[in-house]
Amino acid sequence: MNAREKILNSIAMNQPELVQEPVIDISAVIRYEDTYKQFKTVLESIGGKTELISDILVLREQLIADKASGSFVVNAISQLGEIDQQAAFMSAFELEKLEKAYIKGTIAVAENGAVWIYESQMINRLVPFICQHLILVIDKKDLVDTLHQAYEKLDAAKEGFGAFIAGPSKTADIEQSLVIGAHGARSATIYVIE
User: Fold this and answer.
1) Which H or E element spans position 33?
2) What is the DSSP code (8-state) at residue 17?
3) What is the pLDDT of residues 123-162, one digit of tens each?
4) What pTM was computed for the model?
5) Which residues contact 25 (CB under 8 A, 6 or more apart)?
């Protein structure tokens, strides 16, 4: 028996006992009086913006203006117009100049300001992370108080990839200098449809 096999056998013989998963009483987790207000407060505290809109079509003019400006814009929301399917086949090099992306979210979480997006909603996994300005759209009915409630409604294994995105990308070094847009979108605006 070589050293590798000895180590693996030793690990296999010294496994901890299996313990039951804890049962979380969802009815005892945080509840907010105004879920949207909490979502807005948290999102804005982490550098994002949010706005209530009456209808998704309000964003159609903004999208048209963005595309008319000559900027590279990707639309992944069918209600706003034609979906930019060509983005699905673009490499990181080709998407490098992506200025804005419009993506519909599945669920939003008030406790941390995050929005869940399935891979199919992104068109391309790179889009929400490589764009300069991320526009997410979520229905107000899809706002929940906590991640516990979000995971009850999500099927995380439904697709090969998905992500919670909370505001623009940010990082802080040991000197406590916060940098927004360090490794992803410089801005994130979430439009909540009433």
Assistant:
1) none
2) P
3) 999 999 999 999 999 999 999 999 999 999 998 888 889 9
4) 0.84
5) none
Run of H or E residues at 83:
none
Nearest alpha carbon to residue 129 among 172, 169, 156: 169
**Element holding 118 (H helix, E strand):** strand 114-118
Given the DSSP bridges, would you call strands 178-180 and 170-172 parallel, antiparallel or unpaired? antiparallel
Q: Measured in whole angstroms, how far is the alpha carbon of residue 190 from the centre of its chain?
A: 10
Which H or E element spans position 115?
Answer: strand 114-118
**Whole-number Å distance between alpha carbons of 122 and 104:** 8
What are 49's two structure tokens? 């913006």
**Residues 101/124, Cβ–Cβ less than 8 Å:** no
Which structure tokens are listed for 164?
A: 């919670």
Alpha helices in the chain (DSSP H): 3-13, 35-45, 58-68, 92-95, 119-122, 127-130, 147-153
